[in-house]
Specification:
Phosphorylase Kinase, domain 1, globular, 2 domains, about 15% strand
């Protein structure tokens, strides 16, 4: 059964009806864009700044991509958990409506920018990578050390719908020569249930304040699984931007950001040796998967495809220097 979606005209009445605020609070609504899996609104009242998200049943991409809308419930549970662990980095959950796949959370500090936009604009600070590595490792440690916290995230079909199928299997179907290598990576993910994994640890879901504080968003793919995915997902996005970088300095800063992220994470917990193979596959999926990035030129796509396919075909464990190789650009 389809769920009625809110729009700019109906969202205020809905929230007033749910007693999130009253009409006397003078609510103002702004449509937020950029994602493919939710309807998103920013609502400002006299006393609060908040964001409402409602999950879509079919994601807004060119390929058919259906995902269960109950991921909004998963996200609400994950926001509550990670806000308790990192209250300065994860906004507080204000309201949830499981029946309509809606959640409302605090809006991050005004003036904050999306890290993806910063990186593409050449505003690259490797220290941000270090902060993210520290935070992510602390989350993975918490998930591993607190079995009771995992209970709400044990069911992993959403991760299959939103990550393994559109990234791993879809790319494998286009590249018969890589199917054995990709299946090993799928087995790597499916065979490890050691911690709580964010599942979408991407620059588009990270915001940076004017004082370089970090805020992390979008927890709808949270699941119990292999922590290697979160590490690889972020590095894959940095690799895509590395191939897009217009100047050598920007490319080197992106490689340094990946290295800072890896090193800081490694101070708190061991990193799986397969993480760079996963990163190469995910970067390839950002061209050949169901949700390609929108900023790579045709030439940049070709170079990244050639580079990642060559690395994956060898089947050996990779190094960060091999992945971020200047001569491959």
């Amino acid at each position: 059964m389809s769920i009625e979606l809110l729009d700019k005209d109906s969202v205020v009445d809905y929230l007033i009806g749910k007693k999130v605020f009253s009409s006397k609070d003078n609510p103002q609504v702004e449509i937020l864009t950029g994602g493919v899996s939710n309807v998103v609104f920013a609502i400002t009242t006299r006393n609060q700044k908040m964001v409402l998200k409602q999950a879509l049943a079919q994601l807004a991409v060119s390929e058919k991509w259906v995902a269960d809308q109950r991921r909004a419930i998963v996200e609400a549970d994950a926001i509550e958990l990670f806000n308790q662990i990192s209250p300065k980095q994860v906004p507080k959950l204000l309201f949830r409506d499981p029946e309509r796949s809606i959640l409302v959370l605090e809006r991050v500090e005004l003036g904050s920018t999306v890290w993806k936009s910063d990186l593409l604009a050449g505003k690259i600070n490797p220290d941000i990578g270090a902060k993210l590595g520290h935070t992510l490792a602390s989350w993975h440690n918490f998930g591993q050390q607190n079995p009771g916290a995992k209970e709400r995230f044990m069911e992993d079909s959403l991760f299959d719908q939103l990550r393994i199928d559109p990234f791993y299997r879809f790319v494998a179907s286009k590249n018969p020569q890589l199917q054995v290598s990709i299946q090993k990576l799928i087995n790597d993910l499916e065979g490890d249930k050691s911690s709580i994994v964010h599942g979408d640890f991407s620059p588009k879901n990270i915001m940076i304040s004017m004082s370089d504080e970090v805020f992390i968003l979008d927890f709808e793919v949270t699941h119990v699984g292999n922590p290697v995915f979160d590490i690889a997902f972020l590095i894959a996005h940095l690799l895509c931007k590395f191939f897009h970088a217009p100047a050598v300095l920007q490319a080197k800063l992106l490689a340094n950001t990946a290295n800072s992220f890896k090193n800081e994470y490694g101070k708190l917990r061991e990193i799986s040796p397969s993480f760079l193979n996963h990163a190469a596959l995910i970067a390839l999926a950002r061209i050949e998967g169901k949700s390609p990035v929108n900023y790579l030129t045709e030439d940049e796509q070709h170079k990244l495809q050639k580079h990642t396919k060559c690395l994956l075909a060898h089947g050996k464990r990779l190094t960060l220097a091999e992945l971020f190789k200047m001569s491959a650009k």
